[in-house]
Design goal:
By secondary structure, the protein is α/β, with parallel strands linked by helices. The protein is built from seven helices and seven strands, in the order αααβαβαββαβαββ. The protein has one domain: 3-Layer(aba) Sandwich (Rossmann fold). It binds S-adenosylmethionine.
Length: 229
């Protein structure tokens, strides 16, 4: 199914208003918490998500780059990570960090809820980390548009039960709800796994279109703008 033709996808979480733009101060306090990697290790994702050297990753709702920076290390100099966020402050923060850390393969991109300024099918993997429960269908649609045929969306989100950290349980999506949301956008959700004590990972594949053959490897990075507007 062509995700762009999916016009009536449900809100990811009807009981929840859209995720607000995160301020720099709130993001640094919460997302850069030094205790976080012990509870939610980005390195545990790579094998689950099949992320390796040379790939292009779009991290939508990237925040301070908690996942985007380790991902840029994982894909290496021949790969690329787009750290997409609607918060201009966080885009500026990630851009400055990428410069300081000399991560030339990490590009910060400012989005709007219904528009991510990147081409169709640009990414081998799209990462939604702690965002699906709070974003509108228009952003999910945009995230899916970025995936190449056969590419995978990686949804990391809070388990729907009380945990010491995280949003109120009523704001969270169960695995079944996340699966339904992604399927409504044309993806094929697979198995879910635990990621630490508070999160799950759900991997969903963008079906191959007619005439596409499954690639043996991700292939070289595509030529796309390095400084999107
Ligand atoms: C809970 S934080 C998660 C940040 C990061 N993924 C992480 O796990 O550390 C949610 C992020 O999504 C961003 N955001 C909220 N709504 C968005 C949307 N519609 N499109 C893009 N980014 C969005 C916020 O500005 C914030 O940085």
């Amino acid at each position: 199914m062509d995700a762009r033709r999916t016009v009536r996808a449900p809100r990811p979480n009807p009981g929840r208003r859209s995720e607000a733009i995160w301020s720099r101060a709130r993001a640094i306090a919460v997302l850069d918490d030094p205790g976080r990697p012990a509870r939610e290790d980005p390195g545990a994702l790579w094998d689950l998500a099949g992320i390796g050297p040379g790939m292009t990753i779009a991290d939508v709702g990237a925040g301070t780059g908690f996942y985007a920076f380790p991902a840029s290390e994982r894909v290496g100099p021949s790969g690329r990570v787009y750290a997409v966020d609607r918060s201009p402050e966080l885009v500026a923060l990630v851009r400055a960090r990428a410069r300081e850390r000399r991560r030339r393969n990490l590009i910060a991109v400012r989005s709007r809820p219904a528009r991510i300024p990147l081409p169709d099918a640009v990414a081998d993997r799209v990462l939604l980390a702690n965002v699906l429960h709070g974003i509108p269908p228009a952003t999910v649609r945009e995230a899916v548009r970025l995936l190449r045929p056969g590419g995978r969306l990686i949804d990391v989100d809070w388990a729907k039960r009380p945990t010491p950290n995280g949003p109120p349980v009523a704001h969270r999506l169960s695995v079944a709800e996340a699966r339904r949301t992604l399927a409504a956008h044309g993806l094929r959700p697979g198995a879910a796994h635990d990621l630490g004590p508070e999160h799950y990972v759900l991997v969903a594949e963008q079906p191959l279109g007619p005439g596409h053959r499954r690639a043996a490897s991700p292939g070289p990075p595509r030529r796309v703008p390095t400084r999107p507007a």
